[in-house]
C-alpha cells in the first residue's frame, strides 16, 4: 500500500472509532441548538472515503457484483411497481445509507493491511466506555435527555442519543467482546454488572435479555465442547427449554414485563400498558400490531409489490415504520430485498463456519463472532433500527470484515496465544 492509502485507511478507522462521540454531539446539537445533519454529514464523509478507496485499490469483483445486483433489483422494482422520481431518490438513499455502506465497510476491514486487531479491540473499549460515561453523566448529573414525539423529555436515561436501539446494540456488542475475550474475571463480572445496570437505565428490554442470553451462549458452547457429558446434557437442556417455552409462554412474557416494570425508569408507563394492552404487545412495544397492519395492507397488493415492496418513501414518516427490520425491509424492497439481505447474512455464516482456526485455537473470538451474528438477527427482529440504519450496518460491517480478514484472524490467534501464556504464568506453582 502507498503512504496515501495508509493515511486514508487510518482516517476511515478513526472516523468509525469516533462514531459514538459523533452520535452524542449530534443529539446534543438537535436538543440545544439549531444545528442538525451532523450525523448525516458524518456518514457521507465515511461513504466518500470508502468510494475513493474503492477506486484506488484493486476492485473486489464479489463486492461490486453484489452492490450492482442490489441496485438493479431496486431499480427494476421501481419501474415495475410505482415509477417516480421521489421513490427513486428515497429507495436508493435508504439502500446506500444502510446495506451498501455496510458492505463497503465489510470490504474495507477485510482488505486493509494497516489496521491491527489491537486497534479493533481499542474501538470496542472506546465504545463501551463512551456509552457508559455518557449514560452515567445523564443519570448522576442530568446531562442529557431526548425529546419524544409529544415534545416532552423521555423518562429514561439515554444521554443525548436519539437512536436508542442502535446505541444499545453497539453497547451490547462492545460488552460481549470484552466479556468473551478478556482474561480478567473482574472485568467480566464488573463489566456485566455495569452493562445490566445501564440496560435498565436505558429501559432496553432487548439489551438486558441479550446480555443474559449471550452469557448462557458462552457457557453452553464451552460446556458442549469440553464436557464429557456434552451431548446428553445439551440435548436434555434444549428439550427442557423448548418445553418450558411452549407450556409457559404467556407466564414467561408476563414475568419479563413485570421484571422490567420493577427496574425501568419508565415503570409507570409499562404498568399502564400492562393494564391496557396484551402482554406480548407490551413486550414488543406494539410492533406486533404494526406487523398485523402491514399484513392487512399486503393482502390486496399485486405480485410485483410482494416481490419489490412498497418503496422507502413512506419510511420518511417514521409513524409507518414497523421497527422490526425484516418486515421493514420487506415493506421497502419486497421479498427480493429480503433475499439480498439474507445472502449477505448467509455469507457471514459461511465465513464463520469455515473459520476452523478460530474455532479450534481461539475459541473466545469464535464465540464473540457467533454471538454477534446471533445478536444481529435477534435484535433486528425484536427492536429494529439495525439492518436499516447506517450506524448499525457500519458496526456489523466492521465486525464481520474483521472475521473475513485472514491477516486479522492471525492477529487474533497471536493475541489468544499471548493470553494463554499470561494465564499459565499466573497459575500458582506447587
Characterize the structure shown.
This protein has 430 residues and is mainly α. 77% of the residues lie in helices and 0% in strands. Helix 4 (61-80) packs antiparallel against helix 16 and helix 7 runs antiparallel to helix 8 (185-201). The longest helix is centred in the C-terminal third of the chain and has 29 residues, at 325-353. The mean pLDDT is 85.
Give the terminus-to-terminus CA distance.
51 Å
Total of DSSP H or I helical runs spanning 4+ residues: 20
Low-confidence stretches: none
* Rg, Å, rounded: 22 Å
- Bulk shape: globular
Beta-strand segment tally: 0
What is shown here, in short?
This protein has helices spanning 3-17, 19-32, 38-56, 61-80, 85-111, 117-141, 164-181, 185-201, 205-226, 230-247, 249-263, 267-276, 279-283, 287-298, 303-308, 325-353, 356-361, 363-382, 390-404, 406-425. It has 430 residues and is an all-alpha fold.
Amino acid at each position: 500500500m502507498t503512504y496515501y492509502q495508509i493515511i486514508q485507511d487510518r482516517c476511515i478507522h478513526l472516523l468509525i472509532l469516533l462514531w459514538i462521540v459523533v452520535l452524542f454531539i449530534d443529539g446534543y446539537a438537535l436538543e440545544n441548538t439549531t444545528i442538525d445533519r451532523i450525523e448525516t454529514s458524518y456518514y457521507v464523509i465515511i461513504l466518500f472515503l470508502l468510494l475513493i478507496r474503492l477506486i484506488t485499490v484493486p476492485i473486489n469483483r464479489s463486492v461490486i457484483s453484489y452492490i450492482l445486483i442490489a441496485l438493479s433489483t431496486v431499480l427494476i422494482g421501481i419501474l415495475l411497481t410505482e415509477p417516480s422520481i421521489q421513490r427513486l431518490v428515497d429507495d436508493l438513499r435508504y439502500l446506500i445509507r444502510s446495506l451498501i455502506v455496510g458492505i463497503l465497510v465489510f470490504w474495507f476491514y477485510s482488505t486493509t493491511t494497516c489496521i491491527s486487531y489491537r486497534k479493533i479491540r481499542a474501538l470496542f473499549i472506546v465504545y463501551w466506555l463512551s456509552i457508559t460515561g455518557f449514560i452515567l453523566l445523564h443519570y448522576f448529573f442530568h446531562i442529557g435527555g431526548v425529546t419524544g414525539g409529544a415534545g416532552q423529555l423521555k423518562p429514561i436515561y439515554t444521554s443525548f442519543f436519539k437512536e436508542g436501539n442502535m446505541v444499545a446494540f453497539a453497547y451490547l456488542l462492545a460488552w460481549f467482546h470484552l466479556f468473551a475475550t478478556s482474561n480478567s474475571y473482574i472485568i467480566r463480572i464488573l463489566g456485566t454488572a455495569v452493562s445490566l445496570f445501564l440496560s435498565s437505565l436505558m429501559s432496553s428490554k432487548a439489551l438486558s435479555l441479550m446480555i443474559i442470553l449471550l452469557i448462557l451462549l458462552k457457557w453452553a458452547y464451552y460446556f458442549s465442547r469440553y464436557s464429557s457429558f456434552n451431548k446428553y446434557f445439551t440435548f436434555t437442556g434444549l428439550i427442557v427449554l423448548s418445553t418450558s417455552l411452549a407450556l409457559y409462554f404467556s407466564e414467561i412474557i408476563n414475568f419479563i414485563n413485570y421484571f422490567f416494570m420493577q427496574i425501568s425508569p419508565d415503570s409507570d408507563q409499562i404498568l399502564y400498558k400492562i393494564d391496557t394492552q396484551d402482554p406480548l404487545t407490551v413486550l414488543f412495544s406494539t410492533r406486533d400490531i404494526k406487523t398485523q397492519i402491514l399484513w392487512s395492507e399486503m393482502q390486496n397488493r399485486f405480485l410485483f409489490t410482494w416481490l419489490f415492496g412498497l418503496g422507502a418513501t413512506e419510511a420518511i414518516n417514521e409513524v409507518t415504520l414497523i421497527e422490526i427490520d425484516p418486515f421493514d425491509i420487506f415493506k421497502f424492497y419486497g421479498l427480493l430485498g429480503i433475499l439480498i439481505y439474507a445472502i449477505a447474512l448467509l455469507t457471514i455464516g459461511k465465513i464463520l463456519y469455515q473459520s476452523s482456526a478460530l474455532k479450534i485455537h481461539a475459541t473466545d473470538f469464535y464465540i464473540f463472532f457467533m454471538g454477534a451474528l446471533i445478536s444481529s438477527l435477534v435484535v433486528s427482529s425484536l427492536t429494529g433500527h439495525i439492518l436499516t440504519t447506517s450506524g448499525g450496518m457500519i458496526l456489523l460491517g466492521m465486525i464481520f470484515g474483521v472475521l473475513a480478514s485472514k491477516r486479522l484472524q492471525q492477529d487474533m490467534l497471536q493475541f489468544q496465544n499471548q493470553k494463554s501464556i499470561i494465564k499459565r504464568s499466573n497459575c500458582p506453582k506447587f
